[in-house]
Design a protein that fits this description.
It is built from 15 helices and no strands. With about 300 residues, the chain is an all-alpha fold. It has one domain.
């Protein structure tokens, strides 16, 4: 099983690499960034995590163009599928991820693909009650993408999650851009760069994509029905993820670009955990979830087609 997953991941990753090089929104940016890092006179205003720069430097000795991009796609996909194989509904979980995750991560947000893969494993251990491994893996995943740290909020009770996350929404709705500028003046450049606050600032003023908001609102309607059926939910973590995803939808109307990415992360982890937690006998659940996954995939595919 593990060897077949490895072979499948290699072939699928290469195919995704080729497609991403043609249609991926972020591919050219990654290509130029990694090529810049390995030169001695690189001047690049865009910042990534330290581990990303380190890996780019290490892989620069491999005489294959864009090998690090393929490496990120492969490792992210392989680690996720491997974790799926240890849980219920293995094939259905792969289907959900193929519909709702591949176009976001392996196809575009390539660094986040690895980070989310590690988060998937962290959630796997959290479901088993091992909080220390969960924390360690979340911290490790943040070395690939700092946004992974937000999943530490899952350690709190549901009521506290609601209060904390709503407080964050209220807090950042009051001119977060000015706040980040103030933070920059009172902290060291190294600390500011480590948390990539400049990149966070760049997301704050982008316009909303209404089709994305509509699809995610539809998702809230479907998931509301599913979550009401508590007897089918075996893990409290599913409820917590649903709460985080739901509040993120409201965030779309404050900072759409930022919370679109945040809600995507919660959505993917929620979908995976739903597939792990629901009984195969619940036909209505699988029908609604499959319908949503297909609609989500079509929406993502349309955005690519209309872009090109």
């Amino acid at each position: 099983m593990k060897f077949s997953i490895l072979i499948f991941s290699l072939f699928a990753s290469y195919l995704l690499y080729l497609l991403s090089s043609i249609y991926g929104n972020d591919f050219k940016g990654y290509e130029s960034y990694f090529n810049c890092i390995i030169t001695t006179d690189c001047i690049n205003s865009y910042k990534t995590e330290v581990l990303t720069d380190l890996l780019a430097s290490l892989f620069s000795f491999i005489p294959i163009d864009n090998f690090i991009i393929f490496f990120y796609i492969f490792i992210g996909l392989y680690l996720k599928i491997l974790c799926f194989s240890y849980n219920n509904n293995f094939k259905y979980t792969i289907f959900l991820y193929a519909m709702c995750g591949v176009l976001i991560l392996e196809f575009n947000q390539i660094r986040a693909s690895v980070a989310i893969a590690i988060v998937v494993w962290a959630i796997y251990y959290l479901r088993s009650g091992n909080k220390l491994i969960f924390i360690a893996l979340i911290i490790f995943s943040s070395l690939f993408h700092i946004s992974s740290l937000i999943f530490l909020i899952l350690l709190f009770p549901t009521s506290l999650i609601v209060l904390v996350y709503i407080a964050i929404l209220i807090f950042i709705s009051n001119d977060l851009s000015s706040l980040l500028t103030t933070i920059k003046t009172i902290t060291t450049d190294g600390l500011y760069d480590f948390f990539r606050l400049d990149n966070l600032n760049s997301y704050l003023n982008k316009q909303s994509n209404h089709s994305v908001v509509n699809v995610k609102t539809l998702g809230m309607m479907i998931f509301t029905f599913l979550i009401i059926n508590y007897r089918y939910i075996k893990k409290k973590i599913v409820i917590n993820l649903y709460v985080l995803y739901g509040i993120s939808i409201f965030g779309l109307f404050i900072y759409p670009e930022l919370f679109s990415r945040v809600s995507d992360m919660f959505l993917l982890i929620l979908l995976i955990n739903l597939s792990w937690s629901i009984s195969n006998s619940n036909f209505l659940f699988f029908f609604l979830l499959t319908l949503y996954a297909v609609l989500y995939f079509i929406s993502g595919l349309k955005s690519i087609i209309f872009t090109y």
